[in-house]
Every structure is written in C-alpha cells, then in structure tokens.
Design goal:
By secondary structure, the chain is α/β, with parallel strands linked by helices. Helices cover about 35% and strands about 15% of the residues.
Length: about 775
C-alpha cells in the first residue's frame, strides 16, 4: 500500500532513529544524503547504514549549495513531515509554520545559552544525567552502549512527529523543538526526583538497583538479572525454592517477611542468593525462576538475542536486503498497523530515488480543522483511560497528558499505584505512608485525573465499561492475561467503543511462549543485550540497573497511541496494539545485531570507549566524584584538544595521527588529559573545551541538573507547581515543545479526588447514582 504520510529526513545521529521508527509505522521516509552518502555508509562496512536507514528512500542533495537548498525546499514543500537534524545555526532551510510538520531535534534545543554547543552521545549522556547513574560508586561513571542518549532523542522525535500530525488538524503547526539533553534528563527514573523530593543524590548503584531489591548476579556461565520482586508472594516463592534446594541459610526466619528489614539487610540476602546462583547456568536458572513466577532473566549478548524464542515466535526480527546479501536485524517495538509486521526492508543506494526531485510540486492540501484556538494543545479533546501503574505505563500516559489529553487514571484504595505507597519508591521529605505525597508518583502522573473504582466487583466493572465507551484510548501495562480475565479483552473493548485504540504494554507481549514471564525494567535490559554490553569487558559487566527499559517502553507506548490515533483519523478504524516492553528495549540495541549478522563481529562491552572515536572517555576533575566526558570525533577535534591540554606537538605526532593509532596509545593520552582536567572544576573543563569546539560535558547528577545547569534553567526545564497535599515542588519538564514549553496544568491527582466529576462529566451519571455506588463501596 502507498503510504499516507511522507517524511523528508535530514539525518543526524539524533534524528535517524526517529526515521527508522516511522519506517516501522509504514510511512514513506525520504532520506536526504550528501552526494558522497550518509556517514553511516562508512561504518561497520556499511552495515550501520543498513540498520538506521533500510526501508527509506534516498535522495542525494548538496545542501551546502544554493541549488541544493532550493531542491530541499521544493521537496519539503510537498510532504507531511520535515524531520530536521541540522545543527542550530546551520539550517539549510527554515520552513514557515503551516501544514508541513517541522520537527527540529538538536543536542540542546533551538534556544538557550548552549544551543550551539557540540555534542556526542557520551557528552549528552553526561550533561543529561545518565552517566551519573551507571557504574560503581567508587569508580568512574559508565556509558550505556549503543548510543542510548541519541536513541532517546530519536524516539522522542518520532513522538514529536506524531504529535505534530495531530496538531495540524487544528491549524498551522509551529516549529516542534526536541532537545536531546532534555530527552535524557526526562528519562532518569528517580535520578533527579530523589533530589527534588528527598534532598538526596544517590551514589552510582553499581550492580544493585538504587530503589528496589534487584541486581546483577553471576551464574555458572555468565550473569543473570533479577531479585526479590515487588510482592509478598514473590518473596515466599523464592524462599520456598531455596528451602527445596537446601540453600536458604537463615532466610526462612520470620523476620525476613518484613520488606523494610529485607531492604535494610539486602547485602546479606544477596550474598545467600549469589551462593545459590553460582551452580546454575544462566538460562536454566531464568527458566526455573520464571516457572515460579519470579522476575529473573539471563543476561544475553546481542548475538544470543537472535535465538530468543519469544522474539522469534512474534516475528520481531526483519530481513534487510543489502546488495548481494540478506542480513537479519532488529525489528520494531510493536506491530503496526492493525497487527501487521514488517518482515523485510530494502537498503537504498545513494540517490536511488532522485526522481522524487523531478516530480511536479504537489498541491498542498490543508488537513480538515477539527478545532482551533491558541491555547489548544495537540491532544485536546482526546480521552485516555489509564489502567497503568508504576513507571512504563504511567510514563506513556504522562506524555499524552502533558500534550493535552484528558487522562483518567483508574485506581482503587485496595490496589493503588505501588509508587503511592512503596516505601523505597515513595520519595518524600515526609512520612512514606501517605498515598498523595510521593514524589515518584506525583511527577509521572501530573496533568491527569484520578478515579477510585473497585474493579473486583460486577458493579465496578460495569462502571469501567461505561468509561471505556466514552474513551478514545485505553492503555494498560498488566501481565498478558489480566484484561481477558477481567472481561475486557480487545473484542469486549471494541463492542463498547468500535473505534477504540487499545494499547497493551505487557512485559513480553500477549502472544508467544514467554508471554507470561514476569518482568521489570532491569529484567528487560538483561534479556535484550543492553546489560551485557554495559561494562568494562565481557568478564566485568556492570549492567543497567535503573528503569531505563521502563522509560523506553513508555516512549514507544506513547508513539503507539499517537500512530493509532493518526490511523483512526484517516481510516475510521481503531486497533489493538500489542506492545512488548521486551521488543521496545530490543529495538534500542542499535547496530549490535547487524554487527554480528552482517559484519561478523561479536559486540563486546567497551567501557567508555568508542569503536571509531578516540580519545573518548570520562576524566576525573577537581572535587569528590567530579568528572567530565570528552570525545574527539575527527582530526580537527584532536588538534583543538591538543592545544587546550597544552600538548600542541601531539597534533602532528605520527603516534597519534589516526583514531586507531590514538587507541594504541590510549593510556598515555588519558594520562595527559587527566593531568589537565584533575586540578580544574568539571564545569570549567567543559566550558574551555566547548569554547575550543571539542565535545565535552560535565557528568551531572540530580542536584547539578536542578540547581547548576544554566541552559536548563534558561529554558525553564524544571517546572514549579503546587500539589494540594505535597505542597510546592519542581517537576521534570517535557523534552518536546510544540511551539511552547509544556506546563503543569494541574498537579498529580489526590487518590480518587476526581471520581465524582469524572462520572458526571464522562459517563453522565446522576448525583444519586454516584452516591449509591459510593454507599455500595464500588467507588473506593
């Protein structure tokens, strides 16, 4: 089928993943390459281009010339979306607001004092707060592999495109500004929230989760990830297993039934578990644990990912047709549209679709305007029934709420969102027993409404059905069988609302042999290759312990909702999107799989090094645990760095002329850089290097982001609001600005505070009906 949406992509490391996601949605993406081809054609023997750009069309344009800029302007004038990765101050064209959705994705946004700073994935991870959360407390910060900062920018840019398509139904679309630094800062789980709500900056957690009792453990043939889970049942099942094996030591003592005691004495429990795990092969242990409904996974390498039975059964992988060969690569985070899967993608040659430049300029059709007004947000008028909890689902619906959707969060006093109560996730300066004062919950659930409903009763399910009938979207992140057991599978939802958009966000999906596996974010990271590549070597894996996988799943969930709404606007049809958090995280593994299947290279942990850039690392600065990330992209960067660190003669030294040569002398170069950085404050190091044109970034923790970053402050990234119970505090901002920054229209809801209003406004219940439901304890 011919795509209904055409996108022109001016690519960069921050925009290319967005283009790939849009290919997965079935959109026609036209890649604008320079005459010599996109730089990824020269990485991994061309397999990097295969991953990022397969399925796109290629047009070669020299945007450095006036003729090329005119060609680009003519091409963009007739499309739906212009995905613009050009640097601030180096824009080849600047389309005026209109029917073309113009998304700019840049390192720091289009305004602010650092808008023209240079950046790489490593320096963005440092300045955005990601590096401060990975690694050992007494060692250097550690980079996440496969460009996770760049990929967070990319998926946010894809969400921005889809928001723009919704916004243009209301009139001309303003420039959409996506800041990569803010994309990282918005994805730290509790990284900044711990400081905002507890005046606390957590140490880097090493191999143990900073909030919940999970971690990374050695097995007989590698590593496994997991822990004690989040319920008494999981603890009881784990102890029963240990008792069966005679490996419980003292863990069957009744005192361990107290979760607070378990958290305080976690090191002892983990030591007992490690002794048990030593004898187990990693896959055998994971399968045995999951049979007991315990959250564990083997830590798999990217090449092992290809044999994952769940991913195979769900047709996750795609075949990419390169010239003369077919290569297996990662697929997309959800099947779309209406359950379809992309099975194969062609790799275009340079300028293979040059004929597009000769097409007559099409008539620009203005989309029908459904509503207009300066204060209308892109999703104004869209109602979302939010059945999610903890982080992945609420992060998805937070994005929708921030951009104008009426998000109704369904809870009950008997089963509220765990982040309202769980003591180690509550994050509050006060007592941890008030469901309305937790910073973790209150940040990710702003701009939503709360209704409390007993969904274990027939009357409560009847109310839920009435809410479904009046909702455009239903989102849940339960395990795969819960909605069917409640009587609310897709067929029931569709009978209540024929065009409903239903997005399920279970850990592994609703189909496949592992659909019932229990997952958390760290389990998903372990199962997809991310953990295996986060470390200093194959024998020194540190892993990703915080909720990066939840953030990734939430972003893809938002993309799924928006893509389905766009599809409904064009066809009138709703759909069920079966989004697997496992597949969402796997789609962020970059070129790791084509490196194995195409280039024949086994991906391994690189620490803070890079396969093509050198030097590329994190260097100690003045003060306790102060660091700066520094990267050299090319010979020009190397010359500038040598001048700054007082080694100008090294710029022409034959020992250091190429990245490969510099890697061979890595220790000498690192010593020289450290000798220059260690007596200087990290911010001074960053400023001096940036002034010289060398990508650098202070490794910022939560306090730095909130208090000390002048760029985030100038852009108003942290937004104040007053909560009726928790008082005034700063909220994390939104990295996507559709013409203007997102505001906190209303703080996170007090538990059940909107029940009466929602039932009156949405379902049309009378005051008497609401009173009767409350008297019958249906409204809890």
């Amino acid at each position: 089928m011919e795509s209904a949406i055409r996108v022109v992509e001016l690519s960069s490391p921050l925009s290319r993943f967005a283009g790939r996601i849009l290919v997965g949605l079935g959109y026609e993406v036209v890649l604008v390459e320079p005459p010599e081809g996109d730089p990824t054609r020269r990485e991994l023997d061309g397999h990097a281009f295969t991953h990022w750009h397969a399925g796109k069309k290629s047009v070669a344009i020299d945007v450095e010339t006036a003729v090329g800029r005119a060609e680009l302007a003519r091409l963009v004038a007739g499309v739906d979306v212009y995905l613009d990765g050009s640097a601030v101050g180096d824009e080849p064209i600047e389309p005026a607001p209109g029917p073309v959705v113009h998304v700019r994705v840049t390192p720091f946004g289009v305004d602010g004092p650092r808008r023209q700073w240079c950046a790489t994935d490593l320096t963005l991870a440092a300045l955005g707060g990601m590096l401060a959360q990975v690694g050992e407390a007494d060692g250097p910060p550690l980079a996440l592999p496969q460009g996770q900062a760049e990929q967070l920018a990319g998926v946010n840019a894809a969400v921005a495109v889809l928001l723009g398509l919704q916004a243009r139904r209301r009139g001309p679309v303003p420039l959409i500004d996506v800041s990569a630094q803010e994309c990282v800062a918005a994805g730290l789980e509790a990284g900044a929230l711990a400081y905002l709500h507890e005046d606390r900056v957590p140490d880097r957690p090493g191999r143990v989760h900073p909030l919940v009792p999970h971690g990374l453990f050695r097995a007989a043939d590698g590593y496994v990830g997991g822990g004690l889970g989040g319920s008494p049942r999981m603890w009881d099942a784990l102890v029963s297993w240990l008792v069966e094996e005679g490996a419980q030591e003292d863990l069957d003592d009744p005192r361990w039934a107290d979760p607070v005691e378990r958290k305080e004495q976690q090191d002892h429990i983990f030591a007992v578990l490690q002794g048990f795990l030593d004898k187990w092969p990693k896959e055998d242990f994971a399968r045995a644990a999951q049979q007991r409904k315990l959250p564990w996974s083997a830590v798999v390498r990217p090449d092992e990912l290809l044999s994952n039975p769940q991913l195979q059964a769900r047709d996750f992988f795609v075949d990419v047709d390169e010239p003369g060969s077919t290569v297996r690569d990662l697929g997309f985070s959800f099947p779309f549209p209406e359950g379809g899967r992309t099975r194969a993608l062609p790799v275009p040659s340079i300028g293979a679709h040059q004929v597009l430049l000769d097409e007559p300029e099409p008539e620009v059709l203005e989309p029908p305007v459904t509503a207009s007004g300066p204060d209308l947000l892109p999703l104004s008028g869209v109602r979302v029934l939010d059945l999610t909890w903890v982080l992945a689902g609420p992060y998805c619906t937070q994005i929708l709420a921030d951009h104008g959707a009426d998000v109704i969060k369904v809870e009950s006093s008997g089963r509220p969102d765990p982040t309202r109560f769980a003591p180690f996730m509550h994050l509050s300066r006060g007592p941890h027993d008030d469901p309305n004062t937790g910073g973790y919950f209150n940040d990710v659930n702003r701009n939503k409404r709360s209704i409390t409903l007993d969904t274990r009763s027939e009357a409560g399910l009847a109310v839920l059905a009435d809410l479904v009938a009046q909702s455009d979207v239903v989102v849940e992140n339960f395990s795969s069988s819960v909605m069917e057991k409640m009587g609310f599978g897709y067929e029931r939802l569709r009978s209540l609302r024929p065009d409903v958009v239903y997005v399920s966000m279970s850990g592994t999906g609703h189909t496949g042999p592992r659909r019932d596996w229990v997952t958390y974010a760290d389990i998903v990271s372990a199962a997809t290759g991310l953990t295996a590549l986060t470390g200093w070597s194959a024998d020194d894996v540190v892993g990703v312990i915080y909720g990066h996988g939840d953030i990734v799943a939430g972003l893809h969930g938002a993309a799924a909702v928006l893509a389905a709404l766009e599809h409904r606007d064009r066809t009138g049809r709703g759909q069920h999107i079966d989004l697997s958090q496992l597949e969402a995280m796997a789609s962020h593994m970059g070129t790791s799989v084509v490196q194995a299947t195409g280039a024949g290279q086994l991906p391994v942990p690189l620490g803070n090094a890079h396969p093509d850039m050198s030097p590329h690392g994190v260097f100690r600065c003045l003060g306790p645990d102060r660091w700066c990330a520094v990267t050299v992209r090319d010979d020009a960067d190397w010359t500038r760095l040598c001048a700054v660190i007082d080694r100008p003669q090294w710029a022409t030294d034959e020992r250091f002329r190429t990245p490969e040569a510099r890697r061979a002398h890595e220790s000498d170069i690192a010593a020289a850089i450290t000798a220059w950085t260690s007596p200087r404050p990290a911010d001074l190091v960053t400023e001096q290097l940036q002034q010289a044109g060398v990508p650098a970034g202070t490794v910022q923790n939560g306090r730095d982001l909130v208090e000390a970053d002048p760029h985030l402050r100038a852009r108003g990234y942290y937004v104040p609001a007053v909560h009726p119970r928790a008082g005034a505090f700063l909220h994390q901002g939104a990295p996507i600005r559709v013409g203007k920054a997102v505001t906190i229209r209303q703080p996170a809801p007090v538990l059940g505070a909107d029940t009466d209003a929602v039932l009156r406004e949405v379902t049309g219940y009378s005051a008497e009906t609401v009173a009767r439901l409350r008297a019958d304890s249906v409204l809890t």
